[in-house]
Amino acid sequence: MAIDRTSCSRFAANQLRLLLSVTAYVLFQVLQLAARTTVLGAAQIWILRERLLKVAVWVERSVRRIVLHLPQASPWREAWQHVAHALGAT
Predict the structure, then answer these.
(1) Is the pLDDT of residue 8 over 80?
(2) 89: helix, strand or coil
(3) Angstrom distance (rounded) from CA 81 to CA 83
(4) Taking the domains of the chain in order of start, what are their residue ranges?
(5) In this structure, are residues 80 and 74 in contact, taking their beta carbons and an 8 Å threshold?
(6) What is the Cα–Cα distance from 5 to 62, expressed in whole angstroms?
(7) Are the CB atoms for 55 and 42 separated by under 8 Å?
(8) SS3 for 9?
(9) What is the mean pLDDT of residues 11-28?
(10) Which of 41-55, 56-70, 74-88: highest mean pLDDT?
(11) CA distance 68 to 54
């Protein structure tokens, strides 16, 4: 979680860095739970990061929603869609 990375001289800056690290860890735990029903069910966090988050998408934003258009040739497209549906996407 990068807790040992308290290189700033001020307490508030180190506290913010720690809170961001812990928040990212918790979000990845939720992502890992959502991915349990896919082919990435036993994947570690770095694999989820590379295969699900580092994806080039086209973002379409409207007043009511945000739509992510995945490329047709994405090898992890189905796993991404299963995880998105497990997290509540329509």
Answers:
(1) no
(2) coil
(3) 5
(4) 11-86
(5) yes
(6) 39
(7) no
(8) coil
(9) 87
(10) 56-70
(11) 13
DSSP label at 51?
Answer: I
Look up residue 43 and give its DSSP letter: -
**DSSP for residue 49:** I
Cβ partners under 8 Å of residue 57, min gap 6: 68, 69, 70, 71
Q: Which amino acid is at 6?
A: T
- CA 71/CA 73 separation, integer angstroms: 5
- Say if residues 59 and 66 touch (Cβ distance below 8 Å): yes
- Judged by DSSP in three states, 60 sits in strand
Nearest to 86 by CA among 51, 35, 43: 35
Predicted confidence band of residue 63 (pLDDT cuts 50, 70, 90): very high
